[in-house]
Design goal:
about 70 residues, alpha+beta, about 30% helix, globular, DUF2007 domain-containing protein, N-reg_PII-like_a/b, DUF2007
Amino acid sequence: MTHFNQEGTVVVKTYNNMAEALAAKELLEENGIQAIVEDLDVMGLSPLAGIKIKVFSGDEEQARQLLQPS
């Protein structure tokens, strides 16, 4: 697993399930955008916490375009 400093990152999308979040991360990385999945529901206590996809701020616009529904 690749780790990088999250400073300068922004949330581009929030998902309700991990499968969708991981698919979005894969799509971004296939297009040259480093992305991280941040699951705020660490303890399984809040199903509404959401799973956030973060990218570097310089990639935000392109990432949002890639993640738009077709």
